[in-house]
Model the fold of this input.
Amino acid sequence: MPHWLELMVESLVPLLWAGLIFTVPLTLLSFTFGLALGFLTALARLFGPAPVSAIARFYVWIIRGTPLLVQLFVIFYGLPSVGILLDAFPAALIGFTLNVGAYTSEILRAVIASIPKGQWEASYSIGMTWSQALRRTVLPQAARVAVPPLSNTFISLVKDTSLAAAVTVPELFQAAQRIVATTYEPLIIYIEAALIYLALSSVLSVLQERLERHLSRSGGYLEPAT
Done:
């Protein structure tokens, strides 16, 4: 067996284990919390009172206008100077959640705003409250439009989690760095790590396409809550 192939085989399990234990949970938790934060931020910008809307706009402006890596450094390395100490994983989770929340809020704000006012008026005319109209009429229609950009955000997040290595989270990329430090074979190990990220992204892309086809066949509507 060639040396490079033997090295890749030996490194595969540690890399996959780091991905399973840290990269996947970090991605899922960050996206879940970020999506919830983004939804609340979008509602605040669309329907909130002026002060709340201004705070939401300021949050989105700050996060979208600064690099994610800088945000992680501020949270993990900067906050201790004011007495706020966070472990690596919670710090990364907060950073990714805030970042995802800002970007998903813009997606959700756009798709909710794209629903014609007539849909709201029709809902009110049959006795729905604002929250019922949002939940039963607006969000189901917005879901079809939101799925592609939200899926792209999720796939990008999988790759962005490699930045967590900069704040000492032992995820997939940092596992690769540690292997490189002992084997002195950066090209082989980093290519292997890249292939793992590529495989994850490819699987997610296939799932995204299937979800989009399903929504297209069903007309993009979800069953309303009773």
